[in-house]
Amino acid sequence: MTDPVPQVARPSLIDGHIHFVDFLQNTDGIHALLQRMDEAGVSRAVLFGMPLIKRWDAFEPREPHYYLDDNARCYYYSYTDQLVAAAYESLDEQQRARFAPLMCGFNPTDKHGVRHLERMSHGFRHWRGVGEVLLRHDDLTNLTLEEAARANHPAMTPVYDFCTAQGLPLVMHQNSSSIGCHEEYIYLHELEEVLDRHPRLMLVWAHCGLSRRVYHDRYHEMIERMLRTYPLLHVDVSWVGYDDVMCRGSSIRSEWIDVIECFAGRVLLGSDLVGHFENLGATMRRYECLLKGLSDAARQKVAWGNAGRLFFPDLQGTGN
């Protein structure tokens, strides 16, 4: 029998990374999400759409539901932000306080992409940030129409400037390397170039740059170096990287506990569910072994304080 989870962890959880819709822009709905959050002990959530939609090509006999279901391509879909905004506006004030909506429905390889963010921010005053912007992303990069998106693409420069000027955090998926290269970080320089050029950008690196088949034996050392070098860089612990790289069986590796404890003020937790929320409780319970391994102060920051500081104005200055 495992030890009980410290009481401060689960009642105060903030899900820092959840998609309101899936790759077909379908969703269980905002009220279903609220119910699952209550059941899972998740008090608040950082909520965004899905900037891509999956095609159903004529040569595919079955309708796809996920980007890996077949060989059909994905394309950028701006209406995803309107779906998030409409769901948020359907809530009462108490329910709205539980969500931080982010906008993501722009093409990160189009230098006009920032205009979408400008228009959306004028039409809906509740946005708390930008993301999840999908850039280098294992097989999804190859399945996406347009050129390969990357952190240092010229079209992203005005987006970084927009976020900095507006004081908005940006959540970014940018793989640190390719799925076939596990001895060096061949895409890390793209992110470092951005952080060097935009030192005031508040950036959350989704999944710590991990993805399917993206890993290194001593990955934690790179994350430690990046957090030490760039004081405004944050990372979120979510998706497959937690299970595949950070954990050994059902326990988190001690070297990751050490890094997260050291930089507890810049680590968030997320479920990374996509439009369907029945597994929210089980997904967030995976982090119990991580939270139990941290000090009380670090546990509060990782479980809710950092997401609160970045995305929820009423929680700023608490838990850190």
End-to-end CA span? 32 Å
Quaternary structure of the protein:
single chain
Overall tally of structural domains: 1
Q: What is the 3D form?
A: globular
Named CATH architecture: Alpha-Beta Barrel
Main sheet: strands, sense, barrel: 8 strands, parallel
Highest-level CATH class? Alpha Beta
So, the CATH homologous superfamily? Metal-dependent hydrolases
Write the layout of secondary structure elements.
Blueprint lengths: L12 E7 L10 H11 L1 E7 L3 E3 L19 E3 L2 H11 L3 H4 L2 E5 L9 H11 L5 E6 L3 H5 L14 H10 L3 E4 L14 H10 L5 E3 L13 H11 L3 E5 L1 H8 E2 L2 E2 L1 H9 L4 E3 L10 H6 L2 H5 L3 H16 L9
Parallel strand pairs: 1-2, 2-5, 5-6, 6-7, 7-8, 8-9, 9-12
Antiparallel strand pairs: 3-4, 10-11
Q: Any overview of this molecule?
A:
The structure is a single chain. The protein is of the alpha/beta class and 320 residues long. The protein has a single domain (13-313), classed as Metal-dependent hydrolases (TIM Barrel, Alpha-Beta Barrel). Helices cover 37% and strands 16% of the residues. It contains 13 helices and 12 strands. It has helices spanning 30-40, 79-89, 93-96, 113-123, 138-142, 157-166, 188-197, 219-229, 239-246, 254-262, 280-285, 288-292, 296-311, and strands at residues 13-19, 42-48, 52-54, 74-76, 99-103, 129-134, 170-173, 203-205, 233-237, 247-248, 251-252, 267-269. The strands form 3 sheets. The protein has an 8-stranded parallel beta sheet. A two-stranded antiparallel sheet has the order 3-4. Strands 10-11 form a two-stranded antiparallel sheet. The longest helix has 16 residues, at 296-311. The protein is globular. The protein starts with 12 loop residues before the first strand and ends in a 9-residue tail after the last helix.
